């Protein structure tokens, strides 16, 4: 029997990764992410899944970002009862991510009911904390670099992807074929983690294309000098620096960078506030010694973050106090693209003041407030009001831990044996198409741009 592959998400967009494999009566889903960004994408989260969730035999997870795990509670609530397989760090980080997502979803539904702005009566969350609790009971920890037998003729193998703690590329072998799902691939060197590794080759490869049409530019001078310069001049004019950052991995990378800049004397000693309970929970996992073997060999698990005035912000009251910092400070808060979370309140208060600055720490997807700031918006709509943008805005792409076009090509070229066919996924239509053309031209491989909802028969 042939293997079919359906692109149920992560095609034509950088979010919602879901890849459905069907072979010999078994159905396996690789990743289960929610769609984020523009409204037409978010609305897809409410559409029925292409197959009954109870018909899925297992779900394999590459890593713990919301666009790869955030749909799990929906599938569980609607009947999925099988195992969810992921590395140990992914399981622990996914618990943090899913609990936080449920809290926000339930709170937003309550707020919509109070204000009466929902189309639904009553307003409902996409999933609840109860759905998350059930999903967590179905997780199963797998190790890197081990063939995990699923059923006769089916094995799965997780190889380090160097994107976030626990992240992996998955090589799935079915009775008919073999497929690699790249997941999100890190750069050849990650600021905090061990470098990515190359899995054994497969007949079919799905490769992410977030930066498929772009190259990262290594700084001509010292690393992160635009950031260091911004911090120095913002502090000098009495302002504070706000860094919207993803709670998982990006906050750790930002803190490690600030630690190094301070040790080198390139930024002044300032209070640094981490204002995200989710980020603080993830930071604890990153600094646990049991995950030390996932970190770069030149970093110590307990001290890669070492700032003299580092403060953890937990309560809502303390968070609100940071809206008007009394002294020049650095505030790190989620979410990384300013789509929600505590960072919105800081933006609302800080953007109108030209003394302050906002640092966009990496990729900003279409339809997000981060992208609007990057594109030079003069106003941002938040909490029903138009907020003027007078603060200084900087994008620091050195924080990106997504491989660029050349680094994606290098990873693909290193696979042995060479794939028979390649699909570019998890990117905008433009970036996926540009990467596909580069693969065709530079590597001579048969490549297609995946389309949302498309089902293909694999060789």
UniProtKB/TrEMBL annotation:
Any one GO molecular-function label of the UniProt entry: RNA endonuclease activity
Tagged with keyword Hydrolase: yes
SUPFAM superfamilies for this protein: Metallo-hydrolase/oxidoreductase
Pfam families xrefs: Beta-Casp, Lactamase_B, RMMBL
SMART domains, per database record: Beta-Casp, Lactamase_B
Domain Beta-Casp: 251-373
Keywords: Hydrolase
Domain Metallo-beta-lactamase, residue spans: 15-224
UniProt key word Hydrolase: yes
Protein name (record): Metallo-beta-lactamase family protein
Organism listed in the record: Propionicimonas paludicola
């Amino acid at each position: 029997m042939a293997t079919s592959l359906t692109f149920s998400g992560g095609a034509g967009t950088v979010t919602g990764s879901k890849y459905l494999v069907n072979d010999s009566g078994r159905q396996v889903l690789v990743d289960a992410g929610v769609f984020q960004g523009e409204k037409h994408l978010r609305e897809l989260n409410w559409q029925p899944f292409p197959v009954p969730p109870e018909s899925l035999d297992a779900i394999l997870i590459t890593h713990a970002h919301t666009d790869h795990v955030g749909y799990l509670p929906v599938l569980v609530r609607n009947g999925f009862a099988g195992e969810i397989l992921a590395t140990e760090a992914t399981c622990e980080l996914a618990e943090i991510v899913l609990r936080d997502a449920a809290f926000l979803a339930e709170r937003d539904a309550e707020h919509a009911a109070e204000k009466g702005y929902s189309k639904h009566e009553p307003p409902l969350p996409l999933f609840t904390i109860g759905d998350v609790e059930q999903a967590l009971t179905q997780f199963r920890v797998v190790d890197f670099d081990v063939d995990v037998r699923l059923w006769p003729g089916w094995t799965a193998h997780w190889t380090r992807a160097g994107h976030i703690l626990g992240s992996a590329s998955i090589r799935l072998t079915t009775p008919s074929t073999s497929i690699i799902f790249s997941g999100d691939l890190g750069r050849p060197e990650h600021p905090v983690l061990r470098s990515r590794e190359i899995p054994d080759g497969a007949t079919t490869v799905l490769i992410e294309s977030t930066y498929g049409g772009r190259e990262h530019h290594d700084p001509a001078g010292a690393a992160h000098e635009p950031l260091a310069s911004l911090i120095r001049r913002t502090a000098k004019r009495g302002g504070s620096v706000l860094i919207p950052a993803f709670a998982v991995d990006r906050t750790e990378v930002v803190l490690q960078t600030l630690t190094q800049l301070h040790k080198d004397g390139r930024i002044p000693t300032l209070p640094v506030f981490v204002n995200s309970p989710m980020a603080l929970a993830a930071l604890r996992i990153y600094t646990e010694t049991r995950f030390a073997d996932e970190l770069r060999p030149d970093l110590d698990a307990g001290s890669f973050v070492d700032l003299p005035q580092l403060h953890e912000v937990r309560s809502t009251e303390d968070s609100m106090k940071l809206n008007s910092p009394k002294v020049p400070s650095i505030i790190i808060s989620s979410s990384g693209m300013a789509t929600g979370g505590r960072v919105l309140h800081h933006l609302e208060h800080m953007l109108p003041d030209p003394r302050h600055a906002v640092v966009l720490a990496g990729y900003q997807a279409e339809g997000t407030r981060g992208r609007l700031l990057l594109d030079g918006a003069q106003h941002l709509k938040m909490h029903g009001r138009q907020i003027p943008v007078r603060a200084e805005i900087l994008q620091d792409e050195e924080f990106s831990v997504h491989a660029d076009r050349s680094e994606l090509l290098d990873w693909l070229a290193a696979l042995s044996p060479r794939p028979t066919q390649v699909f570019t996924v998890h990117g905008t239509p433009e970036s996926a198409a540009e990467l596909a053309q580069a693969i065709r031209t530079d590597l001579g491989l048969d490549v297609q741009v995946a389309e949302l909802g498309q089902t293909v028969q694999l060789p």
